[in-house]
Amino acid sequence: MTTAITETDIRTAPNKKVLQEYAKTYKIKNYSRITRQELETKLIEAIKEPAPQEETKKETPQEFFNRVSKIIDESELKAECEKLLEILGTENLQPKSKSNKLRPYARPFKELTPSGCELPKEMFFQFKAKGKSIAIDRHKFFKFTGLDAIDWEEVEEGIKDRKAQRTGKVRAKDELDAALNEEVKVFSLEKYMATMTRLLNSSDPWEKAVGLMAASGRRPSEIMIEGNFELVENSPKYLSHSEYAVRVDGLAKKRDKNPTTIVPLLIPTKEFLIVFEKFRSNSEIIKIRSDYELAIEYGANPTDALHKITDKFGKTLRKVTEEYFDFIPKIDDGENRKNILLRACTMKIITLRDKPKANPKARLQYAGLIAGHIIPVFKENGGIGFDGTVKAATLNYDDYEPDTTDIPLLENIVKIEDMTTTTDLVQIAELKQIIRELEQELLAKDAEIKALKEKMEYRKLELPEPEAMDNRMLFNSRKAGSGEEKLNRAWKAITAYNDDVAEYKLNPTNPIFRQLTGVNGQTVKKWIDEHRVMYDDHINKHGFDSYYNNRYRGKTDMNVEIILEIIEKKYLNLYGE
Prior knowledge:
With 577 residues, the protein is mainly alpha-helical. It has helices at 7-11, 16-25, 36-48, 61-68, 74-88, 95-110, 141-144, 152-167, 172-180, 189-200, 205-216, 220-226, 269-280, 283-297, 302-324, 338-354, 360-371, 392-398, 422-444, 446-455, 471-475, 482-500, 510-517, 521-530, 532-542, 560-571; strands at 124-127, 136-139, 185-187, 228-231, 245-249, 260-264, 375-378, 384-387, 400-402. 54% of the residues lie in helices and 6% in strands. Strand 1 (124-127) and strand 2 (136-139) form a beta hairpin. The two termini are 37 Å apart.
C-alpha cells in the first residue's frame, strides 16, 4: 500500500466518497453497494490484515498445457491440477460451472493418447462415459481435476430444477401474502427531508434529479425524459392540499395508455416546477433527451431506445441515491433497488401527511394513487373514478415507516433568486393548454398533408451509402448494406479495445455483435465465416473461449454492459462530444 490509512481516518472521513477511495486501495469488493457503516467496518477489518501479495500472472490454457503435458510424474501432475483448481476458484462451483471453467484447459488434453505421444502409460487411465460400451484412454488431468466424476445426467436435471425455480411465476395471492408479512422498515423523517432539500438546491443536475424523485415519488425515466408536470388550478377533491398537487403526463408504467394523473408532492407545486424547469434546461439533460429523440427519428423502437438511455443514466442516479440516502433500509435482501426506496418513502410520508385519520383501506388506495398503480378517471359530468387496484408493490412500499407521524407541510425550501409567482404559473398552465389544443389540430391535418405530399411526388432525401456514413448515422440506419458495415466497424472497435486493455477484455461472440450493432444473428454468422482467419487469429491471441464473457455477467465493478458502453463511447463515438 502506498499510504497507511488509520482507523481514525476511516471514522472521520467527511463523506462516503472518501471511504470508497480507501476501499479501492484495499481491494474491497462491492464497496458501492453497501452502506457507509458497513463500509467502515470492512475497512477497519482490512487495515488490520497484512497487505495481500501481488498476484502472479495467470497462465493461458495453452501455456498450461505446454508445460503440464510434459510432466511424467503422477504426484507432480496431481499437484499442478490442484493448484489450477485453486487458481480458478472451482471449490464451491456447481459441476456445470466447474466444467465451463476447465473446458479451455481440458480441450488439448483430450487429444493426448498413449500411442500418439511420448508420455508413459502411467499418465493415462481407462475412462468409460455413462451410456457408452467402450472405454477410452484419457490423460490423468481429467481424473485429478474431477472432470471424470461428473454425472452429466444428474447435472442436467439439476439445471432444469434451478431454472424452473428462477422462472416460476408467483401467484398474485402468494405475492400479496408475502408483502403483508414483510417487516416494517423504519427510516429517519428528519434526515429524509433534509437530504431531499439539499439535493433540490444542488447545482449538480444528477443530485437535483434525485431530489425531484424524492419530492414526487416519480420514477427516474419520468423525471429525466417521459414526464411532463404542470400546475393544477383546481385540484380534485381526493387531494387534501391543492397547493401540493401536480398534473403528470408520461407515466413510465402506463405509457401504452398515456393517462393523465394528478398527485400530491412533498413540497409546494410551484417550488417543484421551478426546480424541474431548471433541471430540464441543463445542457447535459438536454443532450440526453435529444439523443433519445434522435434515436426515434432514425427509426428506433421508442421503448428500446428509452431502455438503452435509461440504463446509462440509471447508474449515475443510483450512485447519488446510495451516497445520500444510505440510511434507508434496503427494499429486500436479494436486490438493492436503490431508487425504489425513494418512491416507497415519499409515498408513505405523503399518505401519513394527507390521510392521518383515514382507515387502512383508504390509505392504501391513496398510496396506490401516488405510486401510479391506481389512475384517476375524470368523467364528463365532473365525477372522478379510479382505474386499478392496490398491488403487491403498493404493499411493499407501504412497509416503509418514518420514525414519526408528525409530517410537516414544507414551504420555501427551494432557494430561488427570482421566485415565479403562483399567478405566473397559472398563466403558464393556461398557455400550455392552448398549445396542446393547437397541437391536436395540427395532428388532425396529418392525413391531409400526407396526401398532398404524395400528389406532389414528395421525395425524401436519400441517405449516403453506409461506407460514407459516420458511426452515429450508420448505427441508427436500416439502409441495405448497413449491416455488414456496422459489423466491420464494431470489429475494429472491439479489437482495438481488447488490444488496449490488460484485463476486462471482450470476446466478440455472435450475441455481442448483435447487442452492439442490432444486426440479426444469421448476418453476424455469415460475416464471421467470411472473416474466419482474421476472427480466429484474434480469439487465439487473447485466449478467449465460448464462456469467457460469463465471468463479467452480473458484476458491479465491471460487466459486459459496462464494457460495451465503453466501446460505444470511446471507440465508436456513438454519443458524440
